[in-house]
Design a protein that fits this description.
single chain, alpha/beta, Rossmann fold, 3 domains, 4-stranded parallel beta sheet, 14 helices, flat
């Protein structure tokens, strides 16, 4: 795939150059003579940074298309910036429009043809890799179900039960097991997935050696007997000690945290400079005109790792002694007229972009709760404190699904926690963008719980 992509990139580059000339636009010969080298180098840099060609065969179709789109967008940004700052190059905007338009269409066709060819190869010419399972425990059955659902694999059944996995005293592989592996090799089976209990891994050396003699690869899957969540992950400490973690946390990776923090800084800076710079004084005057008290309402709330922080909002209520204990409710007498508008439009949350800029909140994340609510709910809601593994956010996965504002029922908080944990385990940069768009749409459309 990398070679065909580069060939297509260059072909489209030349086509775009001559198309631009045909359209009567002036364009420097430097574009076709020297800058094409920069174009190729930037493509290699973008695809390397985004890992487009890493383990391509194991990627889902969705991941492949998403990675390709990201690479094209990154290349567009970098190459356009290069041409803008390269004063000796006279380039045409028409050239860029034609080039990236044709490139996008070309890659869509390329990926469609590639996946169609793969489908034909697998289904018509039996190009799927043959695999089997050894074991009869619950994990082995689950593996078999998964393997049967994969188009790129041909599941050939079971080659032995649990008794087949472990060697006899003296490290000898039973004869019937050797026969089964030999029969599997003759059928063209390349991989055998073995569901094995972790405490018996030491008994597998002879079995592996027997499979190696027949060029059959054994892939061991730990059978934990349903004792922990099926979404557990196994990593290695110092390339030596296997460590089991019970949930996936993408934001535990430094690179992902860095990306999210950069996004937060850029996004919050733009909001502060271009929106709050003029909106703040207008709302400040209106708030002051309607009730005595400060413009901003600040409250201690639970942050990441349950660390308290001062959360800022535009004050939407009269100053009262219940603000740290009582949630706002529908027709709440404490809410001022301007406060009703602020809460309905979610503008009261805008000062939290200062929290984001300072680093104690994120644009997207679980909503922060009052300290006394954290104390109350962690005793009665399962996994409630898991949501505090992340920085709290101005908006979140739970909020765009309707679980915002007052939690009148026990189930409301349970659902909010469920969505927050789902966000923690499923985070991607694109999910953050999706949540932001959904939030804007919800604000424009109006929400029943916004009061």
């Amino acid at each position: 795939m990398p070679i065909t992509d580069v060939i297509m990139l260059n072909a489209i580059y030349y086509i775009s150059y001559y198309t631009t000339i045909y359209l009567g636009k002036s364009i420097s010969q430097e574009i076709i003579q020297n800058q094409i080298i920069v174009c190729n180098l930037l493509w290699l840099v973008c695809t390397a940074m985004l890992g487009l060609y890493r383990l391509t065969g194991t990627r889902s179709l969705e991941e492949l298309y998403r990675g390709t789109l990201r690479s094209i967008v990154s290349h567009f940004i970098l190459y356009t910036l290069y041409l803008l700052f390269s004063k000796e190059v006279d380039f045409s905007r028409t050239f860029l429009i034609v080039f990236y338009g044709l490139l996008s269409v070309g890659f869509i066709i390329n990926r469609f043809v590639g996946t169609s060819f793969q489908f034909v190869l697998i289904n018509k010419f039996k190009g799927a890799r043959k695999v089997a399972v050894m074991g009869s425990n619950n994990t082995a059955l689950r593996i078999s179900t998964y393997l049967q659902s994969q188009r790129s694999l041909e599941f050939c059944g079971f080659v032995g039960d649990d008794a087949s996995i472990y060697t006899e005293p003296g490290g000898i592989v039973p004869e019937f097991v050797s026969r089964k592996i030999s029969e599997a090799a003759k059928q063209g089976i390349k991989d055998i997935y073995v569901a094995v209990a972790p405490n018996r891994m030491s008994q597998l050396k002879a079995l592996e050696e027997e499979a190696d003699k027949l060029c059959v690869r054994l892939k061991f899957v730990p059978d934990l007997g349903g004792q922990i969540s099926p979404s557990y992950m196994i990593n290695y400490l110092g390339s030596e000690f296997p460590v089991i973690t019970l949930r996936k946390e993408p934001l535990e990776e430094v690179g992902n945290r860095f990306k999210k923090r950069i996004f937060d800084l850029v996004f919050s800076s733009l909001v502060i400079l271009f929106i709050l710079s003029w909106l703040y004084p207008i709302l400040a005057i209106l708030i002051k005109m309607q009730s005595k008290g400060p413009v901003l309402f600040k409250q201690l709330r639970s942050g990441r790792d349950d660390e308290p922080f001062w959360c800022y909002k535009f004050r939407s209520m009269t100053v009262n002694s219940q603000s740290d204990s009582k949630q706002a409710s529908k027709f709440d007498a404490r809410v001022t007229p301007i406060g009703k508008f602020l809460r309905r439009s979610s503008l009261d949350e805008m000062p939290q972009f200062f929290n984001v800029f300072l680093g104690n909140m994120s644009v997207v994340g679980p909503r922060p709760h009052m300290l006394n609510h954290t104390t109350e709910y962690k005793e009665i809601i399962n996994n409630y404190m898991v949501r505090h593994y992340l920085k709290p956010g101005i908006t979140g996965w739970a909020q765009v699904h309707g679980f915002r504002g007052e939690t009148r029922k026990h189930e409301d908080m349970e659902n909010r926690v469920k969505y927050d944990i789902n966000y923690l385990e499923s985070w991607t940069a694109m999910l953050d963008v999706k949540i932001i768009f959904m939030t804007v749409i919800n604000v424009i459309r109006g929400e029943d719980n916004a009061y």
